[in-house]
Amino acid sequence: MEIIQLYTLLLIGVLSIGGFAYNRNVARASVRALRQSGPAETRWHSHPNYHGYLTGWSVALVGFGLFIIFNLVFPNQVALQTVSILLGTSLAGLLVFKKIAPAFPARIYTERFIKTTLLALSGLAILTTFGIVFSLIFESLRFFADVPLFDFLTGLKWSPQTALRPDQVGSSGAFGAVPVLLGTFMIMAIAIGVAGPVGLMIAIYLSEYASRRMRAIVKPIIEILAGIPTVVFGFFALLTVGPAIRNLTDALGIAVPTQSALSAGVVMGVMIIPLISSLSDDVINAVPRSLRDGAYALGATKSETMKQVIFPSALPGIMAAFLLAISRAIGETMIVVMAAGRAANLTGNPFESVTTVTVQIVALLTGGPEFDSTKTLAAFALGLVLFAITLILNIIALRTVRKYREVSLA
Fold first, then answer.
1. Domain tally for the chain?
2. Interaxial angle between packed helices 212-223 and 261-285, expressed in degrees from 0 to 180 and rounded to the nearest 10
3. Which residue among 213, 265, 274, 363 is buried most deeply as judged by most CB within 10 Å?
4. What angle is formed at CA 245 by the lines to CA 244 and CA 249, rounded to 5 degrees?
C-alpha cells in the first residue's frame, strides 16, 4: 500500500476516533447530569459539550504530536506510525472519558487550549512576517554589495542580464529600478483611476438609492468579478482590450502596440472594482441610521445627506478600501505580463509597453537561476522595495483612519 493511502487511512482513523470519543463523552456527561436532582448547571462545573470539546482537541493534539515524533524517529516506518498513532489517540480519548465528573473543569481546560492556540497562531503570523523581512534584507544586502543602493534607486536603465563567463560580452547588467517603479505606479494609477470612481459610485447607488430587489440582483453580479482568475483577465486584455485600443488609435493616426500600460491598467481596474465597491458599500451601510434621520429631519435631500453627512462619516473606511485596492494593483503580475509585456521602458506614455516590480521578480526567479548571481539577487532588492511601498501605504491608511475617525459620545 502506498504511503499516501496509509496516511489517508490514518487521518480517517484519527477523525473517526475523535468523533466517536466526542459523542460518547458528551452523551455520558449529559446522562450523568440528568441523573442528578435539580438543575444540572448548579452541580456540574462544565456543560457536557465542553467534555466533548476537551476530548476532540486532546485526540487531535496527541495524534499530531505522535505524527511529528514518529516522522523524526522512524521516518520510513509508515505502518508502525499508523498503528502507534491510532493507539495513542484511542488512549487519549479513553483517559478523557475517565475524567468525566461533576467537578472536572473541562470548560477551563478547553478555553485555555483555545487561548493558547490563538496565541500560537498569532505568534506564527508575526514570526513569518519577520522571517520574510529578514530574508529580504539579508539577500538585498548581498545585492547592494555589488550594486550601490543609490544607483539602484536612481538608475534609469533596467537590463539585469549579467555575464555568465569572463569572456562573455554584452551582458554587463544595468540595475536602475526607476523604469520598473515608474511602470508599476503608472499601471496602478490607471487601475485606480478606473476602479475608484466606478466602484465608489456603485457603492453609493447600492447603499442609498437602489431598491432591495435591485441590490440583491446587482451586488452578486458585481462580486462575480472578484472570483474570475487573473489569467482570464489577462487573456481578456490581450485579445480584446489591447486590440480595441490599437484599432481606435490607428483610426486616429497613432501607432500603438497591442501590449500597453493603458490596456493592463484598464483591465486591472475592472478587476478591483468589486474590492472598492463591496468594502465601501459595507462602510456606508455601517453609518448609524440616526445620522440619516437627523439630516432628513433638518430638510436635507438624499444627495445632500450623502455628501455632507454619510460620506464624511464613512471616509476612513472608504480610504482604507482604496488603499487596499492600490496594494492589490501593485501586487498583480499575470495581467501585466499578458497585457503590458516585460519591456522596462522609461516612459510616461500609457500607450507604450512597460513592466512592473512583480513581473521582474518572476522573470528573475524563474528558469532555474543560481542564487549567487547579481541578477537573481536583484529580485530580492525589488521585493524589499515593494515591501517598503506597501508598508508606507499601510501607514498612510492608519493615519487617515485616525485623522477622520468620528468618536461617538453617546
1. 2
2. 140
3. 265
4. 120
